[in-house]
Amino acid sequence: xxxxxxxxxxRGASIMVASVFISKLLGLLxxxxxxxxxxxxxxxxxxxxxxxxxxxxxxxxxxxxLALSKSISQLSAAGKHKEAYSTFRIIGRxxxxxxxxxxxxxxxxxxxxxxxxxxxxxEPLEAAAIPAIHALAPALLLLPLISIERGYLQGYxxxxxxxxxxxxxxxxxxxxxxxxxxVAAIAGFDPSVKAAIATFGATVGVIGAFLLLRVSVRKLRxxxxxxxxxxxxxxxxxxxxxxxxxxxxxxxxxxxxxxxxSQAIDAFTIPRLLVANGASMVQAITDYGxxxxxxxxLMQLPLAFAxxxxxxxxxxxxxxxxxxxxxxxxIRLQASFKMMTFMTFPAxxxxxxxxxxxxxxxxxxxxxTVSIAIAGIMSIFSALELVxxxxxxxxxxxxxxxxxxxxxxxxxxxxxxxxxxxxxxNGAAIASTVGYAISSWLNMRSVxxxxxxxxxxxxxxxxxxxxxxxxxxxxxLLLRGLKVLQEWQPALAATRGVSLLIVLIGLFVGAPIYxxxxxxxxxxxxxxxxxxxxxxxxxxxxxx
Length: 544
Fold this sequence. Notes:
Layout: H1 5-38, H2 40-61, H3 64-77, H4 81-117, H5 123-136, H6 143-155, H7 159-187, H8 191-227, H9 238-276, H10 281-322, H11 326-353, H12 355-363, H13 369-394, H14 399-423, H15 425-451, H16 457-488, H17 496-520, H18 526-530, H19 536-542
Helix pairs in contact: 1-2, 1-7, 1-10, 1-11, 2-4, 2-5, 2-8, 2-9, 2-10, 3-4, 3-6, 3-9, 3-10, 4-5, 4-6, 4-9, 5-8, 6-8, 7-8, 9-10, 9-14, 10-11, 10-13, 10-15, 11-13, 11-16, 12-13, 12-17, 13-14, 13-15, 14-15, 16-17
């Protein structure tokens, strides 16, 4: 296929998916040694710091990166490259201010956040968690600038550098966390210091990402200057640019704030409900760390694919709609759902069926096994909600998905109150799944209406679903075989080494099974598969 609009979007989205996969895989792998090095209590403190950080990051960017990518895609489609860069620079100045303010608010407001989040009479835990929040806060100085650099590049559908920056960010973060926490463990530091060292890794990672994106933005700037060197640029007023983007940014920010607030609801309700149900403070924080640091972290891998696809589709839809190419718009719309199901379904089945060996292999326990299995189901609805939200924003329907997400969060909160006292963290996982299912269903109903396209999600999803079920059957047979062997030879108990071997064998054999049947069922075409950077053409040849 030639590198037209469809090919450019498809390859760009594939690069984003591959980069995000590597980034999230690194983030997942660090969880294993981190939890074992610093211990469950310190890991719970580490997880407590992140909901406030996520909220402050969202407030710092207030939707401008996505709004900027939408605006840039419109300007570039019209050949107004100078105006596009001027818009980027104007927003950049304000993002710097927002970043400084968010850093100060997070630093100063840490005690108040912990007072509101944690149960009463938990002053020792509050004192232990403040250093972790303070160590995380400096990352907010650079992340707003990073986000608009990504927005500028994504507006031109230049997704390679945006994806690579996430990998660089994660490599720096992981390296620092490993080195720092090992030193802290050897030195015998208390859990508060260990958690603070772990959270400071985020600041280390963003420095490399910022520098990489800066170089990429300058390269794109020189390229667009050559295209528009003979065209006159219309003067732009900062107030007009801000007003225009604020119209887009406000509803986008409202939507992106829903997930951080959902995480904050978990941080506020789960420890309190567990303590009220008789658990000790240490056990409640440890269980909260298991839920957020095991089940939800593992869920981020399939969800990362959806996020990469969504971040690619919104400016792509905007660009095709700006030039009135309805055919291209519908092709990209269909492609986004196709890519989402192809990437997330097998990951969800893997989490659902192999939850126990994954839990033992990664975390040397079975405490979060049921939550991990439920998170596999949750990831499908969460991914569908995320991609459909980006699509609705691409159709300028900004507030509709916000309303749907708020409905889902309210339902989640109500179910948390009912289920957590009875089922613990498994109840929280069920509550989140139901909330995502309802909000994604509402989103899809709106996508069909506003796109004027007869989207039949079940008809698009059954092919990757069927291929994923065959992989799930392989996983099940593998587990049954392990059980037979354990009955014959009790020494083959579910140790970490045996569980890791089972997971690796399952994935090593399961991946080719999925690719083979996905191609045979036409869940994905060979041309689409070949766009995956590095390995795409090899995979097509292997499955030909």
